[in-house]
Amino acid sequence: MTTLTPCNAGKTTLTEKLLLYGGAIHEAGEVRARRGAKNATSDWMAIEKERGISISSTAMSFNYRGITLNLLDTPGHADFSEDTYRTLSAADNALMLIDGGKGLEPQTRKLFEVCRLNGLPIFTFINKFDRPALAPLDLLDEIEKEFGLATYACNWPVGAGDRFKGVYHRLTKTLYLFQKVASGAKEAAVTQLQLDDPRVPQLLDADLHEALLEDIALLDELGGELDMQAVWEQRLTPVFFGSAANNFGVQVLLDTFLDCAAKPRAMPLASTEGASVAPTDPHFSGFVFKLQANIDPRHRDKVAFLRVVSGEFRRGMKVFHPRTGRTLALTRPQKMFGQERETTDVAYAGDVIGLNNPGAFAVGDTVCTGPSRQFPQIPSFSPELFATLRNPNTGKYKQFNKGVAELLGEGAVQALYTNDGFGGGGAPILAAVGQLQFEVVQERLRTEYGVETVLDPLPFTVARWVRGGWPAIQKAGRIFNSQVVKDGWGRPVLLFKNQWNVDTLLSEQPEIGELSPIGMPPTAAELAQAAAQR
């Protein structure tokens, strides 16, 4: 399951509470921890703790009710949407958070479309009902009108704001009345009652009790049922109301999700249209959806996050790496839990494991046993912001080069180079979707490598990869209104100030050939070709 939400809708808080109620942690951390308080498990980087936002996807695997749940926490900020997109490719279900006081936001709409493209069933949690909130029926109506998606309210809020008392679970016909817990670090005390229990009128104010009865009668009159086939086919979303901060409705959400979630899905193959690999396929296969450096800063480690698609993974097994044609031994697999890790001996379809990555893997890589197969590559977003990154302190030359190589290797931002760039002594050009990505790279270079850096913005807004390589550049001759650079694999990239310059080049110099807004990791043959052309 992956959690999706715009900034400040409570995603990290809900993630902590799911871990708390799932028994994975004994005390929930806080997004901005007070003195002596525990930090959020999913936000382990120093910059995440300082700023109170998620900047990188995190995997947390734990067992609950005899089921292994792989929880993928994604950044909510639009500047990190590329990381979110990659992580969604590894998920089987999506949990979409909505701020009950704001309703649908622009980033919510973008994330929903990505879920739809990936074919993920969507569960919806409308959060922050302990604050002033929109009417529940209006929120359901907004989801249905905006997304063309039917809704089914699995639970219903009892009050809102400072009068939010609990939720009524329609599937079990149980009323959950909660008591707040200081800081929400522990599970909330709860009283469970049937709606016709004579104690209910004594525990609820008369107007709240009357409104609840009317709302439930209206929902029942409107009809509809929780059709799980419709959920799995993205025609219906189960909706839950609650307050992650106060632990109201979290247990109901977790239990119902486990009862209704789609099981590990088949993954399409890149080579054959309509072909896919089922989770029950006896041959092991998986793909890399994320790279991360310095999870343990003391050891400067590099980890590749792998989603197991089929078969059984065993520690030490040898696998084929189709992109490079090499055979690799996976000797140090790890079960991930935020910053914490432990060695794992076995994994199955749907699991997420961490692999030691000495530079062998790129995002989107497939590994497999048995017949050679390859899953579709995960494209990079087309960058829109560009800046050179300089090291003003020559005494930090080695630290700067090492930090840049490792951070850019994990895809924190994309890196481009002039012909004398980086390896030749020139400054790398950072290419990003949003400004905050630049700030994160600078902050991580400072805190993880001890290097202060300077960013010099560049006037470009469009990057295009030249599919024909350097021969196409030579054939086109002199190219105006563009700067020719190369990516990390030595392939030519053109930088433009605007789309008009791109269109002009294609019109006036068609010999340049196809230009692509994204760059895929190259195959071994393409690497050799690029090296020969330079």
Helix and strand composition category: alpha+beta
- CATH class placement of the largest domain: Alpha Beta
Distance between the terminal alpha carbons, to the nearest Å?
Answer: 44 Å
The domain count comes to 3
Measured as a percent range, the helix fraction is: 25-40%
Shape: globular
CATH-defined architecture of the largest domain: 3-Layer(aba) Sandwich
By CATH, the superfamily of the largest domain comes out as P-loop containing nucleotide triphosphate hydrolases
Overall mean pLDDT score? 86
> What's the number of extended β-strand segments?
31
- Strand line-up of the largest beta sheet: 27-24-26-25-29-30-28-31
* Beta-strand percentage range: 25-35%
What's the helix and strand layout?
Blueprint: E1 2-4, H1 11-21, H2 46-51, E2 58-64, E3 67-73, H3 81-88, E4 94-99, H4 106-118, E5 122-127, H5 136-147, E6 150-153, E7 155-158, E8 166-169, E9 174-179, E10 189-194, H6 200-203, H7 206-222, H8 228-232, E11 236-241, H9 250-260, E12 267-268, E13 276-277, E14 285-293, E15 302-310, E16 312-314, E17 318-321, E18 326-329, E19 334-337, E20 340-343, E21 346-348, E22 352-356, E23 366-368, E24 385-390, H10 397-409, E25 414-417, E26 429-432, H11 435-449, E27 454-457, E28 462-466, H12 469-476, E29 483-487, E30 492-496, H13 499-508, E31 515-516, H14 524-533
Parallel strand pairs: 1-3, 1-4, 4-5, 5-11, 6-11
Antiparallel strand pairs: 2-3, 7-8, 8-9, 9-10, 12-13, 14-15, 14-23, 15-22, 16-21, 17-18, 19-20, 19-22, 24-26, 24-27, 25-26, 25-29, 28-30, 28-31, 29-30
Can you walk me through this structure?
It is a single chain. With 534 residues, this protein is an alpha+beta fold. It folds into three domains: 2-61 and 77-260, P-loop containing nucleotide triphosphate hydrolases (Rossmann fold), CATH 3.40.50; 270-368, Beta Barrel (Elongation Factor Tu (Ef-tu), domain 3), CATH 2.40.30; 385-533, 2-Layer Sandwich (Alpha-Beta Plaits), CATH 3.30.70.3280. 27% of the residues lie in helices and 27% in strands. The protein has 14 helices and 31 strands. The strands form seven sheets. Strands 27-24-26-25-29-30-28-31 form an eight-stranded antiparallel sheet. Strands 2-3-1-4-5-11-6 form a seven-stranded mixed sheet, sandwiched between helices. A hairpin with a 4-residue loop joins strand 8 (166-169) and strand 9. It is globular and about 85 Å long. The two termini are 44 Å apart. Mean pLDDT is 86; it is low at 31-37.
